[in-house]
């Protein structure tokens, strides 16, 4: 085990400040440049498409190179992409640089998770995984707050410059505090070591050991969806898939809709910041809530709350005078409370 100094985690906090509000800021900048919801959808979609091969690529790199080098490289390249965005004045350039930022921004995730295991005892893995996630979330929230406060004082491309400063802090912190890892601590070792695998799986149950084949999708045959009790699992997966499809659609058009309905940029950012704050608090309390309620019942209630909130926010567009108060209340309920409870329960 290498030196047990976890100050390198603060680089995730600083990078969270730089990356947290970027999606919303890119949306607002595209609209400011004369774009519409289609242009925003292209930018967000390209970023999400890049995310898939990027995660695989940087995961493979973590098997072959020192983790410290990957973390520093990711922060440096992401910060340079963010700096370039501050000088961009076209939608195409903003979209391309945002995709480039996304590609490099995921490079630190796998290495940092491995560093948690290399720099702490097994008994503290869960604590340090939670601490790393908490610092990243706090950074994102701080980024939203900074953007909300400054958006009426600065142009968005100037806010990109401010966020670049936090990217530089992430680079500096990672250079100073991130230890050199032991090559050979591969991702597969997580699976081979049962305790570490189960600990990480509980923290983030999104690990795939191999590429799915056509046989893995037999459970989604129509005949299986209608027969009890074998329909429970495919229905659960189908519900999760639909949930994230609807979330993707909503999160893409929501800032655009608020802005086009007449709310200024600071109010749009303020509403989303409120949702982010409620989500962080809800994730912190979700474990205690789930101890008292059945997980399936809680997931159902969370989906009902989220769906109802979506409907109410949609209806609010018909009544301009109610647009702000309704979204201030119901967006944190949908994106914060309902999402965190559903994610934890499912």
TrEMBL record:
The keyword Calcium does not apply. Keywords: Membrane, Transmembrane, Transmembrane helix. Residues 1-182, 232-346 form the Major facilitator superfamily (MFS) profile domain. The chain crosses the membrane at residues 12-34, 40-58, 70-91, 97-117, 129-150, 156-178, 232-254, 266-286, 298-316, 322-343. PROSITE patterns: MFS. Pfam families: MFS_1. GO terms for molecular function: transmembrane transporter activity. Signal peptide: none annotated. This is MFS transporter. It comes from Candidatus Aramenus sulfurataquae. The lineage of its organism: Archaea, Thermoproteota, Thermoprotei, Sulfolobales, Sulfolobaceae.
């Amino acid at each position: 085990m290498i030196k047990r100094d976890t100050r390198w985690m603060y680089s995730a906090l600083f990078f969270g400040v730089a990356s947290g509000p970027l999606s919303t800021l890119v949306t607002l900048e595209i609209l400011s440049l004369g774009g519409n919801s289609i242009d925003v959808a292209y930018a967000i979609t390209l970023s999400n498409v890049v995310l898939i091969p990027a995660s695989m690529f940087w995961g493979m790199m973590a098997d072959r190179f020192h983790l410290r080098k990957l973390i520093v490289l990711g922060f440096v390249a992401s910060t340079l992409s963010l700096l370039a965005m501050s000088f961009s004045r076209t939608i195409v350039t903003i979209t391309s640089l945002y995709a480039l930022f996304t590609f490099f921004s995921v490079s630190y995730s796998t290495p940092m998770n491995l560093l948690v295991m290399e720099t702490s005892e097994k008994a503290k893995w869960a604590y340090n995984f939670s601490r790393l996630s908490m610092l990243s979330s706090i950074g994102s929230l701080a980024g939203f707050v900074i953007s909300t406060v400054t958006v009426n004082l600065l142009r968005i491309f100037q806010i990109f410059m401010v966020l670049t400063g936090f990217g530089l802090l992430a680079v500096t912190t990672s250079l100073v505090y991130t230890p050199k890892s032991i090559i050979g601590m591969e991702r597969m070792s997580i699976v081979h070591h049962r305790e570490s695998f189960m600990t990480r799986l509980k923290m983030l149950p999104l690990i795939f050991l191999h590429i799915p084949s056509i046989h893995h999708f037999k459970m989604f045959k129509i005949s299986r969806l209608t027969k009890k009790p074998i329909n429970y699992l495919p229905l659960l997966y189908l519900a999760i898939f639909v949930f994230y499809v609807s979330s993707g659609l909503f999160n893409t058009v929501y800032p655009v809709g608020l802005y086009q309905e007449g709310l200024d940029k600071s109010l749009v950012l303020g509403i989303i910041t409120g949702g982010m704050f409620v989500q962080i608090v809800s994730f912190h309390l979700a474990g205690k809530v789930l101890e008292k309620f059945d997980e399936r019942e809680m997931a159902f209630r969370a989906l009902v709350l989220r769906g109802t909130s979506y409907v109410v926010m949609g209806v609010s567009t018909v009544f301009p005078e109610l647009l702000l108060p309704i979204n201030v209340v119901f967006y944190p309920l949908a994106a914060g409370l309902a999402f965190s409870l559903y994610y934890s329960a499912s």
